[in-house]
Structure formats: C-alpha cells, structure tokens
Amino acid sequence: MTRILCANWQAADDAELEREHFPDVELVLARSTTYVAAVLDPADCASVDAVINYSPTLLVEVPPSAFPKARIAVRSGVGFDNLDLKGWAARGVPACNVPDYGTTEVADHAIALVLALTRGTSTYSADLLGEGAAGWHFSRAPLVRRHRHARFGVVGLGRIGLAAARRAAAFDMRVTFYDPYLSSGVELATGYDRAHSLAELMLTSDIVSIHAPLSPETQGLIGAAALAAAKPGLILVNTARGPIIDLDALAAALRDGRVAGAGLDVLPAEPGDLEHPLIAAWRAREPWIRDRLVVTPHAAFFSPASMIDLRLKSVEVAHAFLTEGRLSNCVNGVTP
Hints:
Elements: E1 2-9, H1 16-21, E2 25-31, H2 42-47, E3 50-53, E4 72-75, H3 85-90, E5 95-96, H4 103-118, H5 121-131, E6 151-155, H6 159-170, E7 174-178, H7 186-190, E8 193-194, H8 198-204, E9 207-210, H9 224-228, E10 234-238, H10 247-256, E11 259-264, H11 277-283, E12 293-295, H12 304-324
Parallel strand pairs: 1-2, 1-3, 3-4, 4-5, 6-7, 6-9, 7-8, 9-10, 10-11, 11-12
C-alpha cells in the first residue's frame, strides 16, 4: 500500500475524506499548530512514498534527505515558497503544488477587497454598528468612486490574475496587465492592454491587484520605487503573498496620499504581524488610516467547496504520480 506523510496536518478530523476517496493509500498524519511545525517520526520519514506539506507557511521540519523512499513532494496549496525545491530537485524528486482549487474564490476576494474600499461597504457597516444613527450617511466612506472606465491593473496574469481581470471587466473597468513571463499576443487573445514595466502599470492604473507567486524576484516587488511611480489615489490589493509588498513603503505611501487605500489578505509575517506600525495604526483606528485599509486573515482561498477540492487534489497529485506516473503541477523542474 502507498504511504503518504501528511506533514503539518491542521484539520480537526483524521482525514476521513481522503481515506474514503483513496482507499489504497495509507495516510500518516503529523499534526502541527499554526505556529510550530509538526515533529516527525524518523521511522515514518524513512518509509513513506510521498510527502505533502499542509501548512501555508511552515516548512517540513526535516530536509528532503530524511525521506529516502519518497518519490514526490506536494505543497497543499498554490504557494510553494515553503517547499525545499532545491533539496527535492537534488534528489531527482519532483515538487508540486495544487494551483486549481480556489481560483475563483481568490479572484472574488480580490474584487471584494476593492469594493470594500471603493463602495464603502466596510466603512458603512462599521460606522452604523459603532455610532448608530450618527453613522447613517453616504459621505462616511472616503474612497467611494465609480468603477466604469477605471483602469484595473493586474500584476501576474496567471489563473487567478485572469479570473480577477474578467471580474473587473464585468464592472466595466478597463484592464491592463504586467507579466513579463507571458509571450507576445496574450493581449490580443484577452483584449486587455499590456504594460511593459511595473512602473508603467502603476502609473496608469486606478486599482492594482497582485497575483504573482512569491520568489526572490517578486519579494519586495511593490516597494518604495513602485509606489513612487503609482498614479495618485491608487487602490492596492494583495491576495497573493505578503512579502511581495514592502509594508513600510506602503505605510509611507498611504501617509503621503500616493496610495489612497489598500486591501490586504496576506502579510509579510503570518499569522499577521499585528505590531507592525501600519497594522497597529489600523487596529487603533488612527485618523490617518481609518477607512483606508482592509485586512483579512489569508482567507481569500476559503470556501467549504474549495477546502474539499484542496484536500482531495493534494492527495490526487501524489497518488497519480505514484500509481500512474502522471506528473502535474511540478514547480522544481524535475521530470523523471
């Protein structure tokens, strides 16, 4: 029987869903907390055929060399910055992710963050709860604007970026994308405008939504230089990975008004670094940031349906390779 180690397992159940759908697989659960990686039994490490990391942030606590029989490693989610890609590649083992479980949820969430700011939904609700009748006025939300003909900029026109762009277009927004990895002609196929530099995208967009993976190239991509190039009054949204935005630079841009508002589902340190000056000011409802920042707890991917997809697809990626030799979503360049 195939044995798969489920490292950093955080679900409350004992993988009954997975066991029902994959009866020929023995699942070894190694539970973690949100903050601390699972302690792994060396005997399990030595005997499993595959490793799945279920944490969005924690690493597997031991290196790939601790898994001599493993033939595939999987990150249960889209982001793979907490998989040891080089370590697995050095052993000739493919490392894969699960990119297709929450595409529509993340795209929906990106637009929801935009609307929370530009239609005032978060402000109106909070003011009515906190102030009663005194909060009953349309002028309470400072960033409300018309979406029709606004320019929606997308950083990274992959699956989620494209889904977000389609939703923005449905609001009659004009779409521009920046993605240096896409071949020429994508703009013709989509009907969207193409920016040939990040600075160009920032300068011409009313809203910028980030949908790029975290890598050495994208870490800090939205920093002081990018924000200095932004069109005044920019709305910035990040549902990708926290470290893509330099929070200190964003705080400065919000203070000087270059950025009007921001919606963040991800932060550089997660669980959220609530002591960062920007986040602390937002939590304290300091006047300069009040109603200009919306933060959600890395929840863009979530719906009950997406969680079922994620759990089943994570095992499916490993199972298909081990039983059929069918490799999908490899992110470390190994093709056995």
